[in-house]
Amino acid sequence: MSVSYMTHPLIKHKITLIRKETTGTNEFRKIIEEIAMLMGYEALADLPTTDVEVKTPIETTIQPVIDGKKLAVVPILRAGLGMVNGILALVPSAKVGHIGLYRDPETHQPHEYYCKLPDSIDERQIVVVDPMLATGGSAVDAVTMIKQHGGRKIKFMSIIAAPEGVSALMKAHPDIQLYVGCLDRQLNENAYICPGLGDAGDRIFGTI
Ligand code: PRP
Ligand code: URA
To answer: Which of 45, 73, 140, 193 is deepest in the core (most CB within 10 A)?
Structure first.
């Protein structure tokens, strides 16, 4: 698996803003979407293109367009939903699948409750999105579920990751490409990322 860590100053700046506990729901949601768009721009740099003929007001020319089946964006519910519109701003024709997983607060193990993916998933470039990669349990299970449905070309985008999560995902799925906004120090005893930003789902949706 290849891991790419984001270096763009705009991404770094925006991640700092969402870490602040005083950042409210409205702003938090908006910035998550902006970060997803900036990270998507980096993660989709290798999308294949094909040449087509277009007629400009001046002459006919051969120019590139994105090739192949439409992209599939797959958020891990709930928090991943906050990143979807950022990717759709770049690729409006992308299909959207959903994977429902929640972490048991005691065991920190992921529990699956939903999976609905676009058709021809085996032919699509898939971008799985979840702002937080903590123990990696949810990410590992989500990618396993996508593979069980036939998905092959998988990229995973997380805004903040713990070293434990990166290692777990690399070990379980060495064939995927991982994009991380910022690598944090470690997990605490409740498997929350330190320094992190708290509970991403609660902060996006304004729940406690
Ligand atoms: C959070 C987060 C990830 C998961 C990461 O979701 O959005 O999906 O935890 O933790 P892990 O790497 O240890 O599995 P959560 O289970 O809190 O659900 P939510 O998005 O519905 O709040
Ligand atoms: N899920 C979150 O939302 N935050 C963490 O720090 C860990 C898991």
So the answer is: 73
Any idea where the domains of the chain sit in the sequence? 2-47+66-205
What pLDDT, on a 0 to 100 scale, did the predictor assign at position 208? 79
Angle at 32 between CA 30 and CA 38, to 5 degrees: 105
User: In ligand 2, which atom is closest to the CA atom of 196?
Assistant: 6
ipTM above 0.95, yes or no: yes
Mutate-to-test residue for ligand 1 from 103, 173, 178, 208, highest number of ligand atoms within 8 A of CB: 103
In this prediction, residue 184 carries a pLDDT of 98
- Over residues 54-70, the mean pLDDT reads 94
Residue 23 Cα to ligand 1 middle (Å): 20
CB 117 within 8 A of CB 129: no
Mean pLDDT (the chain) is 96
Contact partners, residue 166, CB within 8 Å, separation at least 6: 3, 133, 136, 178, 180, 183
Give CATH for domain 2-47+66-205.
3.40.50.2020
